[in-house]
C-alpha cells in the first residue's frame, strides 16, 4: 500500500512539473510571437524560396561586403621554415584592434575556409585589422615548410610574438577546430610571456 501511495504521489508530481514546464514554454512562445509581430522586417518576395535563401547565404557576402586586397607577410619559425600571414589592414591600422584567425583543418588545402572567410569579412567591415595566420604546411604555403615535428607547437607562439610587434592596439585570437587547439596550446606554452597587447583569445574546438 505504501508503495502504491508513493507511486501515485510521484505521478502527480511529475504531471504537475510537466504542466508547469509546458505552461512556461507556451508563455515564452507567445512572448516571442508578440515581439515578432511588432517587428517591421519582412522577407523580400525574391528570398522567400528556401533554396534561394541557401544560395544567397553563400553568395551575398562577396557582393555586399567590401573585398580589400591583402598583404602577405612571412614569419620565421623553427628549422629554417616560414609560415605565412595574410593581412587585411585598415587605412588607419595603428588605431584599430586586430583579429588573428586560425582556421580549422578544412582550411588546410587552400589555406582558408568558409568559416574564416566569414569572420574576416565581418570583422574587417566592423573596423578591425584582420590577419589570417596559416599553419605550417597549409595551402600554398607548404613550400615554405622544410620539415614537420614536435616544434610545430612553437609556431603559433612565435607568430603571435612577431605579430604583436606589427600593431599598436589590442589583438584577439580566434581559433576554431584545429585552430582552436593550436590557440589553446600556444597560450598554454607562452604562459606569463603572453604579449601585453593580447588580452583575449577565443578557441572553439571539439572536446577542447
Characterize the structure shown.
- With 208 residues, the chain is an alpha/beta fold.
- It is 42% helix and 17% strand.
- The protein contains five helices and six strands, in the order ααβββαβαβαβ.
- It has helices spanning 2-38, 50-64, 114-125, 155-164, 178-190; strands at residues 71-77, 81-88, 98-102, 129-133, 171-176, 200-204.
- The protein has a six-stranded mixed β-sheet with strand order 1-2-4-3-5-6, sandwiched between helices.
- Helix 3 (114-125) links the parallel strand 3 (98-102) and strand 4.
- The radius of gyration is 25 Å and the shape is extended.
- It starts with a helix and ends with a strand.
- The model has no long low-confidence stretch (mean pLDDT 77).
Describe the structure in brief.
With 208 residues, the chain is of the alpha/beta class. Helix content is 42%, strand content 17%. The chain contains five helices and six strands.
Amino acid at each position: 500500500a505504501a508503495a502504491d501511495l508513493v507511486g501515485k504521489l510521484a505521478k502527480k508530481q511529475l504531471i504537475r512539473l510537466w504542466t508547469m514546464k509546458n505552461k512556461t514554454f507556451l508563455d515564452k512562445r507567445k512572448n516571442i510571437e508578440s515581439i515578432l509581430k511588432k517587428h517591421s522586417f519582412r522577407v523580400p518576395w525574391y528570398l522567400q524560396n528556401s533554396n534561394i535563401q541557401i544560395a544567397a547565404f553563400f553568395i551575398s557576402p562577396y557582393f555586399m561586403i567590401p573585398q580589400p586586397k591583402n598583404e602577405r607577410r612571412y614569419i620565421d619559425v623553427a628549422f629554417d621554415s616560414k609560415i605565412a600571414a595574410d593581412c587585411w589592414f585598415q587605412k588607419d591600422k595603428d588605431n584599430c584592434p586586430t583579429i588573428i584567425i586560425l582556421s580549422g583543418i578544412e582550411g588546410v588545402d587552400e589555406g582558408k575556409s568558409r568559416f574564416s572567410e566569414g569572420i574576416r569579412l565581418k570583422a574587417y567591415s566592423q573596423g578591425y585589422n584582420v590577419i589570417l595566420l596559416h599553419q605550417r604546411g597549409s595551402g600554398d604555403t607548404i613550400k615554405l615548410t622544410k620539415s614537420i615535428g614536435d616544434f610545430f607547437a612553437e609556431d603559433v607562439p612565435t607568430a603571435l610574438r612577431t605579430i604583436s610587434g606589427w600593431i599598436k592596439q589590442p589583438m584577439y585570437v580566434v581559433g576554431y577546430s584545429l585552430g582552436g587547439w593550436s590557440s589553446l596550446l600556444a597560450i598554454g606554452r607562452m604562459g606569463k610571456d603572453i604579449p601585453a597587447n593580447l588580452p583575449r583569445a577565443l578557441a572553439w574546438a571539439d572536446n577542447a
